[in-house]
Amino acid sequence: MRAEEMFFDREGLEMATREEVAHYRAWRLRDCEKIMDLCCGIGGDLLALGQQAEVLAVDADRRRLTMAQHNSQVYDLQKVRFIAAEVQSLRMNVDAVFVDPARRSGQRKRRGEGYSPPLSWVADLRTKVSRLAVKVGPAIPEEDLPPDCEVEFISSGGQCREGALYFGQLATTSRRATLLPERHTLETTAGPDVVVAPPGAYVFDPNPAVVRSHLLDELARKIGAWKLDPQIAYLSSDAATDSPFVRSYRLIRWQPFQLKRLRQTLRDEGLYPREIKKRGFPMEPPELRRRLSLPPDGRPITLLLTRLRQKPVVLICEMQGN
Ligand SMILES: C[S@@+](CC[C@H](N)C(=O)[O-])C[C@H]1O[C@@H](n2cnc3c(N)ncnc32)[C@H](O)[C@@H]1O
């Protein structure tokens, strides 16, 4: 982004879509010639959409709309028009609409009905336009996700940054997890149930977008892995994988979790936990690190704290290349 030439306020910038996410989503709307960008804010999405389509950008906040206007000039976008309006008052006269509702702060911020405009109003647009895409927060509860759309969660910089709903012709599957910047994508597939079994030679920590999309079984089948526990998102296999959807660890050993025994094992073998992660385990990693109180000069390893058959265990691992 040419940040030095652009106009934005702090809140507008905080709400704005990251550039690589905006470009990816614009790519998903690549067949749309005319798009309404509802709730355009300072123009994070607009700058990507406006490079490929005619866009009508709408926001109720005039100040922010002026910033979006300026920013689109910085990018020399020729086919973008602006309207200051409440989006609920508009007639939808294009075939594609993108909406990025404001997610209010406070208690209801995660719920779709706490969005402005509310998610139920936004999702109703699917009856008026043939292509609808909606940005949602990654923490939106499952029960707030409409059933008749594609739900995609996007990871950028290793974190699950946001979700998007695609309706009508834009929907290509029911769930999707996409990793940026490479655009690796994993989608719903049918297949046999994934086995649950104790750890093999390798343990895999799936990307948060895969976990959030509930595509763990798809991933396990794809990389030939099994689950350590039906409810926990660590996978395992006796074979290594170079899948971009996981962080891979070679298992050194695993043992039931007991603080004293773990400290002894690490001391005896000269290991130092450079990284401590957990899933389904009661103790927080910083607390364990403090209670282990080990000198940092051992061989660096990773501790994965989790449970097997309801019992707390620790997996002592070595991180692999990815
Ligand atoms: C999350 S921000 C949009 C960010 C934008 N997509 C970007 O990347 O810069 C949400 C915007 O929705 C606008 N908004 C909220 N409710 C609205 C409504 N009912 N009508 C029009 N705009 C609205 C807010 O003014 C705010 O600018």
Brief summary of the model shown:
With 322 residues, the chain is of the alpha/beta class. The protein is built from nine helices and 18 strands.
Structure, described:
- By secondary structure, the chain is of the alpha/beta class.
- The chain folds into two domains: 3-185, 3-Layer(aba) Sandwich (Rossmann fold), CATH 3.40.50; 202-319.
- 22% of the residues lie in helices and 34% in strands.
- The chain has nine helices and 18 strands.
- It has helices spanning 10-15, 19-28, 46-49, 62-74, 119-124, 208-213, 216-223, 259-269, 285-292; strands at residues 34-38, 54-59, 80-84, 96-99, 102-103, 115-116, 131-136, 150-156, 159-168, 175-180, 184-187, 202-206, 226-229, 232-237, 246-256, 271-278, 299-308, 311-319.
- A nine-stranded mixed beta sheet has the order 3-2-1-4-7-9-8-10-11. It has a seven-stranded mixed beta sheet with strand order 13-14-12-15-18-17-16.
- The longest helix has 13 residues, at 62-74.
- The radius of gyration is 23 Å and the shape is elongated.
- The two termini are 28 Å apart.
- Bound molecules: S-adenosylmethionine (SAM).
- S-adenosylmethionine binds at residues 15-17, 39-45, 59-61, 64, 86-88, 100, 102, 116-117.
Low-confidence segments, given as residue ranges, are: none
Mean pLDDT: 94
How much of the sequence lies in strands comes to 25-35%
Measured as a percent range, the helix fraction is: 10-25%
Rg result: 23 Å
Specify the CATH homologous superfamily of the largest domain. Vaccinia Virus protein VP39
Structural class: alpha/beta
| Corresponding CATH architecture of the largest domain | 3-Layer(aba) Sandwich
CATH topology of the largest domain: Rossmann fold
Q: Report the order of strands and helices.
A: HHEHEHEEEEHEEEEEEHHEEEHEHEE
Largest sheet: 9 strands, mixed
Biggest sheet: strands side by side, in what order? 3-2-1-4-7-9-8-10-11
What is the terminal separation in angstroms? 28 Å
